[in-house]
Amino acid sequence: MVNTKEAADTLTNPDKYYYLIPFMRTERTLSEAARDLNIKPNALFYQVKRLETLGLIYVVRVQQRKGRASKVYRASAQRFIIPFKSTSAETMESIIHRMREPADKKIIEAYLKTMHDHTENFGLWLSLADDNLMEMVYAPLISDQWLAHDQLLAADFPALFSKYASFPLDFATAKEVQLGLIELFEKAREKSQPSGKRYLMNFSIVPLDD
Predict the structure, then answer these.
(1) Are 42 and 130 in contact (CB under 8 A)?
(2) pTM value > 0.90
(3) In the chain, domain spans
(4) In 3-state terms, what secondary structure has residue 207?
(5) Partners of 137 in the β-ladder
(6) How close are the terminal C-alpha atoms of the chain, in Å?
(7) Residue 32, strand partner residues
(8) Are 134 and 154 in contact (CB under 8 A)?
(9) Does domain 5-85 fall into CATH 1.10.10.10?
């Protein structure tokens, strides 16, 4: 349980908890963690000292390497529980927005880059479907009859799909969709491979107030 404001604010800020990730995975020296994060050790030094001061990492041991001693660090826990009252945020919504913003931004940027890399003429499609669902699709402008799934599912097109939709569902169907999303998430996790290409995915279903 995280009880200090400084530690809680660090763990709810992507720009700060980013530096903790290597030490949560395994034991790491400062140089090894810097290599994991693709930054220079000097740039990580201050962050490591700050994480240590906050009690989020600790020194496991000191090892001798090529005549010099290197501290080996590890995260103080594999799971941190952060009560909202421990943070300095005004609302829980502001915390979630801050934590999700980098991923949401990356999804949009990667989606558009993939489209641009694989199509010459590209734009926004806005239409009202037969079931009155308003559809907005970023897609190739190859014809006025373009169907999103036909292009996306082509064998030579990257694995790419992103869409927000609001459907009227009965409770049983909504629970079925919820289960399907959870199973899809677990399938992706189960089949993940360290040597594979990384994909960013978002799995969500929420009830709306009419």
Answers:
(1) no
(2) no
(3) 5-85, 103-165
(4) coil
(5) 125
(6) 37
(7) none
(8) no
(9) yes
Contacts of 52 (CB under 8 A, 6+ apart): 58, 59, 73
Distance from C-alpha of 11 to C-alpha of 17, rounded to nearest angstrom = 5
Structure token digits, residue 206: 């929420």
Residues 81 and 200: their CA atoms lie apart, in Å, by: 24
Residue with tokens 């994909």: 199
β-pairing, 122-128 vs 68-75, is: unpaired
Burial 185-209 (b: 16+ CB within 10 A, else e): eeeeeeeeeeeeeeeeeeeeeeeee
Question: How is residue 89 written in tokens?
Answer: 């945020």
**Mind listing the pLDDT tens digit of every residue in the chain (210 residues)?**
899 999 999 999 999 999 999 999 999 999 999 999 999 999 999 999 999 999 999 999 998 877 788 999 999 999 999 999 999 999 999 999 999 999 999 999 998 888 888 877 777 777 777 767 777 777 767 666 555 567 778 888 899 888 887 888 999 999 999 999 999 999 999 999 989 999 999 999 999 986
